[in-house]
Amino acid sequence: MLTKDQIINDSKQYSLFTWVTQKNVNPIPIERAEGVYLYEVGGKKIIDFSSGLMSVNIGHGDQRVTDAVVEQMQKVSYVTPSCTTEIRAKLAKKLASICPGDLNKAFFTLCGASSIENAIKLARLYTGKHKIFGRYRGFHGNSSASMTVGGDPRKQYTDAQQSTNIFHLDDPYDFYGLSDLDEETRLKWSLDSVERIIRYEGGHTIAAFIFEGESGSSGCLHYPKGYLKGIKALCEKYEILFIADEVMSGFGRTGKWFGFEHSNIIPDMICMAKGLTSSYLPLGCLMVSDKIAAKFDDSPLWLGLTYNSHPVSLAASLAVINIYESDNLIANTNKMGAYMEKRINEMRAKHPSIGDFRNKGLLGCLDIVKSKEPYQLIAPFNANAAEMEVMNKVGAKLRELGLYTFVRWGYIFIAPPLMINEEQIDEGLAIISQALTIADEYVI
Questions:
Q1: At 431, which helix (H) or strand (E)?
Q2: Which of these, 7, 48, 15, 32, lies nearest to 399 by C-alpha position?
Q3: First vs last Cα of the chain: how many Å apart?
Q4: Mean of pLDDT over the chain
Q5: What is the pLDDT of residues 175-226, one digit of tens each?
Q6: Is residue 153 reached through a cis peptide bond, with omega within 30 degrees of 0 on the bond before it?
Q7: What is the DSSP string of 330-388?
Q8: CA-CA-CA-CA torsion for 405, 408, 412, 415, nearest 10 degrees?
Q9: What confidence score (pLDDT) does residue 123 get?
Q10: How far apart are CA 4 and CA 40, in angstroms?
């Protein structure tokens, strides 16, 4: 068995790591994982406060999923997508049962980005239109079109590789002069601005809008009440499809099966991944309405992947969905989300660096501020290396104390597995509290 240092050194020498300079990468060597905990080679215990990539919703190491995967491997590990299997029939029917409205057709993909890519293709095939709209502070993956339709600044380094005919909307309320207006007026003006852009671009040219059901890696920025419903109404008015990206916010993460359900809307398509298998195996899915699917009853569906409907990944997914139900994980998400909010509010008296905490279920983000009047994050959106000095110290302290989560710009993400309990929440927040003593020193 390789030593801890051999694992780290060989991984760095023979593989590439994402989003970082390779020279300075310092990976955590994980030997095993169970529940809300990761265990380093050598035995150090780490509490996972971001469910991996906000995706290991049922917790780590659940052997019920392992058993389902092994059973499927013993039957059939792969068939071409033109064949079918019992597990394909069962999972597709199960997904149709938990999706609202007439979202009854599943197109299985490999991951979230490939779900987005195929949603864009399908929207163009169905409508005959070509333009796609996303948000400046949305994120939809790192393939070509999925990265372009998001607004994450990481794409700025690969501008030449971005896709065409993709446009962006600003965040609601993020316009000059709106802060002094009442809520109803601000909502109206925000939606008016979207309709104005539709008219400028021509509704007859726009195939689809893509919105996260609930915002994730941009900082869990909440939509104003009524905003997504207003966007959906505009889509219907101008015959534009509404695509919900539920890759991160789906499968109980926000306290409902899907994040868009908090806005009381039904999209035309849903992009899924992450919690679909709790990341035990790679799998994505594009759920499509019966209305859209009917177009391809008598014309070819020009979409395809080698691993479409991969039976082993499908088996993992069905086992995971059964665990959401049998273990009442969505109810636990709501209960633990409320407890998390209560405990963080209690921490405010101790830490002047705590700003807003935006939380929906167990998809949360904590602002770390250097000033509350005016409100100023300790590191701004798209912060450079120098601006990240304090938050890098906070992140290093979290790791030293045995907590894994995302620290990005002035944010600490808090999105633990949905089976977490109060004692484990207290354990994680106690570590965050210790790390925040560093940020407290920089508050002005």
A1: helix 422-440
A2: 48
A3: 51
A4: 95
A5: 656 777 888 888 998 999 999 999 999 999 999 999 999 998 888 888 989 9
A6: no
A7: HHHHHHHHHHHHHHHHHHTTT-TTEEEEEEETTEEEEEEEEEETTEEESS-TT--TGGG
A8: -50
A9: 98
A10: 9
Residue 158 has φ and ψ, to the nearest 5°, of -130, 40
Closest to 247 (Cα-Cα) out of 88, 420, 117: 117
The two structure tokens encoding residue 297:
């009853």
If you write DSSP's letter for every residue of 29-64 in order, what string do you get? -EEEEEBTEEEETTS-EEEESSHHHHT-TT-BT-HH
The amino acid that residue 104 corresponds to is N
Compute the distance between CA of residue 132 and CA of residue 110 in angstroms, rounded to an integer: 22
**Residue from 192, 259, 206 nearest 236 by CA:** 206
C-alpha 340/C-alpha 132 separation (Å) is 37
Which pairs count as long-range contacts for 68-76, CB under 8 Å and 24+ apart, including other chains? 68/315, 68/316, 68/318, 68/319, 69/280, 69/281, 69/312, 69/315, 69/316, 69/319, 71/315, 72/311, 72/312, 72/314, 72/315, 73/312, 75/311, 76/311
Phi-psi region of 18 (alpha: psi -120 to 50; beta: other; left: phi over 0): beta
pTM: 0.95
Angle of the 389-401 helix axis to the 422-440 helix axis, nearest 10: 140
Which helix (H) or strand (E) element contains residue 358?
Answer: strand 354-360
Residue 335, pLDDT above cutoff 90: yes
Instruction: Select the highest-mean-pLDDT range: 67-81, 151-165, 216-230.
Output: 67-81
Helix (H, G, I), strand (E, B) or coil at 84: coil
What CA–CA distance (Å, rounded) separates 75 from 101?
34
- For 71-97, write each residue's pLDDT tens digit: 999 999 999 999 999 999 999 999 999
Tokens for 395?
A: 């992140």
Q: Are 391 and 368 spatial neighbours (Cβ–Cβ below 8 Å)?
A: yes
Tokens encoding 292: 């859209």
